[in-house]
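Data availability (excerpt). The following record was deposited with the supplementary files.
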Amino acid sequence: MQPLVRTRERATRPPALATPAERSAPAPGRTETARRRAGTMTLTQPSSPAAPGAAALPGGSGAAGRNIESIAVLRRTAKLLMHRLPQFTDQVVELINQQEPAYRSPVVDSDVLWHEVHRSLRHSVGCLINPQELRDAARRCTWRIGADRARQGLPLDALLHAFRLGGGAVWRELLDIAAQREPESMRLLVHVAGDVWNFVDEHCSIAAEAYRATEREMAWRRENRLRLMTEALLEGTARVSDLPDIAAALDMPERGRYAVAAVAGPRRAALHGGPGQSAGLVWHRTETADFAIAPVAEGGPEKLAEELRGRTGTGVRVGISPAVDGLAAVGEARQLAEKALAACPADGRVALLEEHLAAALVVSSPELGSVLTERVLGPLLRLEPMDRDLLLETLTAWLECDASAQRAGERLSGDAHRLAGVRRLGAAGR
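Predicted structure:
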């Protein structure tokens, strides 16, 4: 038997199985009479992959009514192929490396590839001999290969190409064995060619399904890992030894300056497109509020507040912490952001903690707020209502006039009674 890889020319299907394009193509230059009679199958199949679980194996329910003699020839040649499987594995691995560049990348270990191909061929060729017993094991083997290649990051197209290369190699080798051992029976293999390629298509579908399922699982794991890292930062529970890994995963410098924005309200999702990074922010959702970790190397929290004001509308309140140094201090910034949020005066507003310190103090510590109220406003509250109202009116006018006693006096009493207004201001000061 000549080596499989001695020729890489494209073989043709038998006329009964050829596509319209193949039937209209010029005849190949191959001169082997036996091969033309048997109809060498091409590697690329136009038919749609069979769904996993379909009866597509020779000898199974999908082969009912087939010529028994054709099936017998197929099984005899498959048994002979099993006897030389290690050498055939070498040929298939060489073929894959020649025709699929992705398998020459460093992520694919040559020894691992050889054992993977050998295991797959053992199950596949075994299914041609005894499909009822080996069908499930072959499917599990293919699923494992698809999942492993997804974890390695090998492109799905490359994986499917390798499967079809292997399927084409098996079919051509069966024809070679039949031509050498049973030339008169070789033409019978054409009757089971469709079943063989249905088997290849089925396993391509299984490999693709495993690949996509593993990709989804990996994406979920990545998102969940980022979510847990962000949560640890905001809760202040991240270990110092984990900070370099967290910084790399979130693509944020470990020693940068950060502020945290706390967002509440039924329409808070409008401020971001979802978890993860969005416009330089790392978002984290909770049941009561959403939090954004924002780098503030330039512009400070004020720049963040300006950006969020442009997107904040009815049904949303935002509180922003002062800037802190390093990812290790993000937990502290989150607590300050919650205080700023509690002090936010109304819907559609963005509150910087540094601009609402008094309100934040009262909200965050009611006991201290009561002490502050008594200390500052106690004497005023103990006055008679008429006197208290007069003093509050005076104080309001003074504040609205930018602390100008002259303008406040004019506003309170007019030009004719300016001195009376000034006296009222003096009383309010006392």
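Summary of structural features: The longest helix spans residues 193-235.
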